[in-house]
Every structure is written in C-alpha cells, then in structure tokens.
Design brief:
single chain; three-stranded antiparallel beta sheet; 48% helix; mainly alpha; 342 residues
C-alpha cells in the first residue's frame, strides 16, 4: 500500500509540473536528489564501481549509499564536501538508524565505508572517514525451517487461491528449490520445453544448474504465460513480470511466497523466515525424510560444496541424537589433595 501511494504521489507531482507523465520504474533513490555540482563526482563513483566488474544491482546499492552520504549530511557543494567532518558522520548515522533495522544497517554501513574510502582516495576529503563507521554487531542464528506434513498439504491446497503468476513462482521455489533471484531472472531461453528441464546459471555462485521441469511446475508456467502474463512492447525476455504497467521484470519473489503461507495458515516448524527460502529449506527436509543422499541434495541445490549444507543439519534430529555424548561420566565428585578425583 505504501509503495502504491508513493507512486501515485510521484505521478501527480510530475503531471502538475510538466503536464504529462511517462511510465518508469520508481526507486527509493529517486527521492534523494543531490546538487548538480556533485553529479560528475557521482558518475565517477559509478564508473569506478563498473571498473571493478560489479553487478548492476550492486552498483545501484552503492549509488544509494552515495546519495545517503550526501543527503543525510546536508552537503550541497564540493567545497562543503571537502570539509567533511565528524558531525556529518553523526548526522548520517542518526538518519540511518531511524530508517533501517540493525541487520540492514550492517550492510549499509559497509557500502558507506566504500563511498568514504572513494572520496579520500580521490582527494575529495582530507581525512579517511571510512574507519569511523563501526558496523553494528548482529547475532547470526539462522536455523533452517520447514513445514509439517499437515502444513505442507495446506500450502499446496491453497495454490488455486493465488494468481497464476504467484502459483508458478511458489511451485518453482517449493518443488525445484530455486532462489529468489533465479526465479525473478528466469528467461524463456532457459526453459527447455522439449527436454523438460530448466538450464540456468545461478546468480549466487555462477554455477550452472540443470533441473527437471516436472509436470506440475511446467503446467503452472505455461498456464501463466498463456493466460495471465502481460505482453509488453518491446517484448520482455523475462518470464515473470509485474502485474501493472509499466510491465517490467519482477524484482522479488518474497511477497508471492509469503502470501501463500499467510493464506494457507501454514507455520514453519522452526526458524522465522517465511519467504521463498523457506520453500527451499522445506524441499531439503522432504528429501532428507525420503532418505535422499546428501550428494544428490547438494547437486539439486546447486551448491559448490557440501559445506553449504551444514545449515540443514538441524533437520535431522535422529542423526543429531547419535552424535550426542552420554551422561555416564557425570557423577559425584570428591576432592583430594592435588586435584579433583571423579
């Protein structure tokens, strides 16, 4: 609702100022304008990022961090930027703390450090302020969640209650274990209809992955493509598009996957995540329950090594019980001269 309201406000503003409106993607950084005198510096920063072979998504994230540094410190000229001070750092951190939670702050601080390092390396600031930002400590306690048999049955029973697009997305995550990014970036050329398989290169590790296009998933994809998918001009190579104009590639699969969980009322047995990765974890749990070998699971998930499967150990309670130490050595202790006698 908030994103729709923001888009409506932006449309009305542009119509009031120009008398017309052209459809375009509206990002958060669009509302963070910097002074025109600082635009060449921003372009040099973006060119520097591209020279390091960073992806477009990563460049956008660093560009947002650059705008945060400029806007949150109130800087409006190169002269003012050259006098960057500790008070500016304090202003930036206070504003970030109001807008982001602790886990997001950790990522944003790292990007801002890179921006400050760039400013110092290029002689814009006389002091290297990158070291003055200390990322907040975040306790990483990821436990892979999964659905019980009843919750999983309820999840599949509610597939008809969502749109054709969301149904196809959820089945790709639940039955094939595709990640969010790989689902949203799925292209028509990666679907082998004749060979009944998907051939992709995973974004996370650049590892090629070939998965069987099982009947239920293939039928859901075809149903969406023929009966619900918009047909924009020029043609878009990506399978999943937004449902409203301007039709563009879907950015995230989190919302469709979470909506299905909320509609079905299914709750994960453990863990707190309720997005597309929960479907992937549940697929692993299903394979472990059916005694599928670990190597097959590793290959199906597209992992480089078995070390990446460690987070799924919590799904095997019987195996964990075999690793537990007994209590035989625990008993009354008596002390004697020189040490402890058990």
């Amino acid at each position: 609702r908030w994103y729709n309201d923001r888009k409506a406000a932006y449309i009305l503003e542009e119509i009031a100022l120009t008398g017309n409106y052209s459809w375009k993607y509206i990002s958060s950084s669009r509302f963070m304008e910097i002074d025109s005198s600082l635009e060449p510096l921003r372009q040099n920063f973006i060119k520097h990022l591209h020279s390091n072979n960073l992806s477009e998504d990563t460049v956008k994230n660093y560009d947002l961090a650059f705008k945060c540094v400029i806007c949150f410190s109130g800087i409006s000229s190169l002269e003012r930027l050259s006098a960057f001070s500790a008070e500016d750092i304090q202003s930036i951190t206070h504003t970030l703390a109001e807008r982001y939670d602790r886990s997001c702050l950790r990522s944003m601080y790292g990007r801002i450090q890179k921006v400050l390092q760039f400013l110092y390396d290029n002689g814009i600031t006389s002091h290297n302020w990158a070291g003055s930002l200390v990322s907040p400590a975040v306790l990483q306690r990821h436990v892979a969640g999964y659905f019980s048999d009843e919750a999983e049955a309820s999840l599949y029973a509610c597939l008809d209650a969502v749109s054709l697009r969301d149904r196809a997305i959820c089945l790709l995550a639940a039955d094939l274990g595709l990640r969010d990014y790989d689902i949203c970036h799925l292209r028509f050329e990666q679907i082998d209809w004749q060979g009944n398989k998907l051939c992709i290169v995973q974004h996370k590790n650049d590892v090629p992955l070939v998965l069987p296009l099982i009947a239920e998933v293939g039928n859901a994809l075809m149903d969406y493509i023929l009966n619900e998918r918009p047909r924009p001009e020029p043609k878009n190579p990506y399978v999943f598009l937004t449902s409203v104009a301007p039709y563009r590639r879907l950015e995230h699969a989190y919302r469709p996957c979470r909506n299905l969980i909320e509609i079905s009322g299914a709750e994960p047995v453990q863990g707190k995540h309720k997005g597309s990765h929960l479907y992937r974890d549940n697929l692993v749990h299903r394979m472990l329950k059916n005694k599928v070998t670990h190597q097959v699971i590793t290959d199906s998930l597209g992992h480089r090594s078995k070390e990446s499967d460690k987070s799924y150990i919590t799904m095997e309670p019987e195996m964990l019980r075999q690793c537990a130490l007994g209590l035989d050595l625990i008993g009354p202790h008596c002390w004697k001269e020189g040490g402890l006698l058990g």
